[in-house]
Specification:
The protein is of the alpha/beta class. 37% of the residues lie in helices and 10% in strands. It has helices at residues 18-26, 49-65, 97-113, 129-141, 164-171, 173-180, 193-202, 230-233, 263-285, and strands at 30-35, 71-73, 118-123, 158-163, 215-216, 251-255. It starts with 17 loop residues before the first helix and ends in an 8-residue tail after the last helix.
Length: 293
């Protein structure tokens, strides 16, 4: 992946013909489904930051494993739950939880009934979806179909989900800190150095660094979420235990230091994400489906 990147048609399902899609299914390809949202990312960042970054992570992962594992990226799911009021931030999208879960369910069922046996929803947003998507997946793993109520989801199908930054926080914490430049005391919950840095690398013409001023800073607590990885990962340890009040910055509704973001750091984070996610894909691809609900 690189600046203003082009997508390899062999790795991207929407670019395939129906015959190419059948071949991917026949190859037992792992299917990555990027999911995020369209919402405000300060005065400096584009609205598509979350979904564009996670799409890039998925495509870079497919490239990373291509020599030994068939991995295909699905069309991104652009719209999910977002906390921002579109009346205050035009362009930010809102979706009701039940509508989101049903829509995503129909999308995933389409892939499963189409023959994909291993489907991973790669979350690039959060905002509550870290709880809502697993709830949907538990239903799919029970083989309950809403799309075709008279059918059962194929027994060999397996669906999972993970947030890509939380994956790095758990399995490559030191490397993530180094990739960010070891910014002591710097947090990125929304629109900070990680998200902005990746957009600087991927879409340099869309980021206005002249307007990238510090946002709010979350105060670290031992057991509470406070950084972009912790903001999702920690919630699974102590549910609904939130961080300390933040220190106000120059830019409201942004948490972190977008002014410290660089394209170089963004590339390092993307490369690390592809490497770690690639390790997971290789492991998963080699396993049989077992232990389903």
């Amino acid at each position: 992946m690189g600046p203003e990147w082009k997508i390899d048609p062999r790795l991207y399902l929407p670019y395939m013909t129906r015959e190419a899609a059948r071949e991917a299914v026949a190859d037992n390809a792992v299917l990555l489904v990027p999911a995020a949202t369209i919402e405000q990312h300060g005065d400096h960042g584009p609205l598509h930051t979350d979904i564009d970054n996670v799409l890039a992570v998925c495509l870079a992962t497919a490239e990373e494993v291509d020599a030994d594992v068939r991995c295909v990226v699905a069309a991104p799911v652009w719209f999910t739950i977002s906390p921002f009021d579109p009346a205050q931030f035009p362009g930010s999208m809102r979706m009701r939880e039940d509508v989101f879960k049903e829509a995503l369910g129909d999308i995933l069922e389409s892939y499963l009934f189409g023959g994909f046996k291993k489907v991973a929803v790669v979350n690039g947003h959060g905002g509550g979806t870290e709880w809502q998507i697993p709830d949907l997946i538990f239903r799919l793993l029970r083989k309950e179909s809403h799309l075709f109520p008279d059918r059962q989801i194929p027994p060999e199908a397996h669906v999972i989900t993970f947030e890509w930054t939380a994956l790095l926080e758990v399995f490559a914490q030191k490397e993530l800190e180094e990739a960010r430049g070891c910014l002591e005391g710097c947090t990125d919950w929304h629109g900070g150095d990680i998200e902005t840095g990746m957009q600087l690398y991927l879409r340099p013409g869309l980021v206005d660094m002249a307007k990238a001023v510090p946002g709010d800073t979350m105060q670290p607590l031992e057991f509470a979420p406070w950084d972009i990885g912790h903001s999702w990962y920690y919630q699974y340890i102590i549910a609904e235990y939130w961080g300390a009040p933040s220190t106000p910055g120059e830019q409201a509704t942004i948490t972190g230091r977008p002014d410290l973001a660089t394209a170089e750091a963004g590339k390092r984070v993307l490369d690390l994400a592809a490497k770690v996610t690639g390790r997971f894909v290789r492991e998963w691809a080699g396993r049989s489906v077992c232990g389903l609900l």
